[in-house]
Amino acid sequence: MIVWSDTVRKPVCEGNSMTVKVKFFASLKEQMGCDGATVEIGEVATAADVWLQASGGKALPPNVLVAVNMEYTDQNQGVKSGDEVAFFPPVTGG
Amino acid sequence: MIVWSDTVRKPVCEGNSMTVKVKFFASLKEQMGCDGATVEIGEVATAADVWLQASGGKALPPNVLVAVNMEYTDQNQGVKSGDEVAFFPPVTGG
Amino acid sequence: MKIAVDEAPFSPWEALAQYERDVVQPAFPGKFGAAATFIGTMRDFNEGDGVHAMTLEHYPGMTEKQLQLILDEAFNKWKLLDALLLHRVGELKPQEPIVLVAVWSAHRKDAFEACRHIMEALKSRAPFWKKEQLDGGAGRWVEKNSDGY
Amino acid sequence: MKIAVDEAPFSPWEALAQYERDVVQPAFPGKFGAAATFIGTMRDFNEGDGVHAMTLEHYPGMTEKQLQLILDEAFNKWKLLDALLLHRVGELKPQEPIVLVAVWSAHRKDAFEACRHIMEALKSRAPFWKKEQLDGGAGRWVEKNSDGY
User: Fold this and answer.
1) Which residues of chain D have pLDDT under 70?
2) Given 3-state DSSP classes, what are the helix, strand and coil percentages for chain B, each rounded to the nearest 5?
């Protein structure tokens, strides 16, 4: 079970912005109430920034995994315009 | 390849004797020229004694495995009348 | 090498027979001495509760990409000849196969080690998620895979 | 649990499908989550030489006894539901299956570990001997099994 803790929403840089695709899966998708979104964000942004923008300022739960363009990464990775940024709980296949 | 070294044949006790069944397998069977024999041996005898009797006094090669009544054992195990004593090279199944 | 992620149920032993006959034997006739396989099947229980159905969600695209990475790693680490990896998604019932991992090699050590490694890597890295339908009626996400070692 | 030592060739995947359907599923419906298998197949080469035929000798009676001991040990050490063990003897040609080890359990760790353990125990203790017919015409006894770990 993911427990949310509120946090302050980071300001998105004015002026230059880019668009990234956000995806949520499994229990996170249910908790977010949607399977993703397209978000506009300042040109210099990390996956964590994308999360804050897409989640409306919620803190990134510590057990959530992050993938950019279908590769695992951590929340500090920079993203670029057109990237697909996915957030999901620990995987349970097999 | 099993290398034979000659050795002195142990005397079989006179008087009370018993019969055991001897089996050889695989390359050892080929080297012995038969797949086994029934041997008469003194009542107090080990598997090694059975080997000496059956092999005509050859030393037991160090890599030969010994089974008495289809269970692995070592050459010092005592045998009793009616036992089946098998000698064979390292196994190579699977 | 074949990877498939499919909503349709599969018959693991038939899939193995067919793949070995049609792909492995023609490509490596007389060369494979070992095949190690693992098949994961849906149980009707988990953590003390009865389970009568399961939904397997995944991340299309990333799933295949990660599975390919996992197989590539295994082929780099061990001497392997071929591999087959099948994984169900969608709605499952107890006793239906979930996953199949098969590895062919010349020698058994490679097949054993690679098969287990692939399975553990899949469990920890391939983006699948299981939601169980408990006998009581509640839905429950599986939170974490058990440790395989 | 089934052990068979036979001169007749066997089809490993069909044997597995049949055993699982006729024995494992009826006995443990919905209870097995894992099946690990190993199949050893005759290669057409060994230690740098071509091999075109093989004779598998064994010690009837002791073979079955040792195989049973090995399975019993595995069932004592791991939580297993069922096992199938088949081994060829007699005259073999390349690409024919030699041995099949299959283990069913609730959880994968048991199946993986038991399957490999059974196979290694069989290799070191079951009284089988291989004589290869080399492509040059000579017969050669296999002197020692390779190390599996």
Assistant:
1) none
2) 15, 35, 50
Is D138 in a helix, a strand, or coil?
A: coil
Average pLDDT of chain C is 97
Identify each DSSP E strand in chain C by its residue range: 2-6, 34-41, 45-46, 49-58, 82-88, 90-92, 97-105, 128-134, 139-141
Which of B23, B89, B91 is closest, CB to CB, to D125? Answer: B91
Nearest CA of chain A to the CA of C30: how many Å?
31
Give the amino acid at C62.
M
In contact, C125 and C118? CB cutoff 8 Å: no
The residues that bridge with A23 in the sheet, in sequence order, are: A36, A86
Six token digits for residue A9: 């929403």
Query: What 3-state DSSP class applies to A7?
Result: coil
Please name the amino acid found at residue D33: G
The CA distance from A41 to A54, in Å, is 10
CA distance A16 to chain C (A): 30
With an 8 Å Cβ cutoff, are C34 and D13 in contact? Answer: no
Judged on CB neighbours under 10 Å (0-12, 13-18, 19+), A40 is exposed
Least CB-CB distance to C43: which of D31, D94, D146? Answer: D31
8 Å CB contact between C85 and C123 = no
Whether B and D touch (3+ CB pairs < 8 Å), yes or no: yes
Cα gap A49→A61, rounded to integer Å: 14
- CA-closest candidate to residue C8, choices C59, C63, C64, C56: C56
Q: What sign results for the dihedral spanned by CA atoms B54, B58, B60, B63?
A: negative
pLDDT digits 0-9 by tens, C12-41:
999 999 999 999 999 999 999 999 999 999
Burial of A45 (0-12, 13-18, 19+ CB in 10 A): buried
Residue A8 in tokens: 């302050």
* pLDDT 10s digits, D14-26: 999 999 999 999 9
Residue position matching structure tokens 């030699």: D98
pLDDT in tens, A68-83: 999 999 999 999 999 9
D68 near C CB under 8 A: no
Reduced to 3 states (helix: H, G, I; strand: E, B; else coil), residue D110 is helix
pLDDT score at C148: 87
What's the distance, CA D61 to chain centroid? Answer: 17
Phi, psi of C90 (to 5 degrees): 95, -145
Hey, how many other C-beta atoms are within 10 angstroms of the C-beta on C79? 12
Q: Determine the pLDDT at residue D148.
A: 87
CB contact under 8 A, C148 and D37: no
Predicted TM-score of the model (pTM): 0.92
d(CA D78, CA C64) in angstroms, rounded, equals: 33
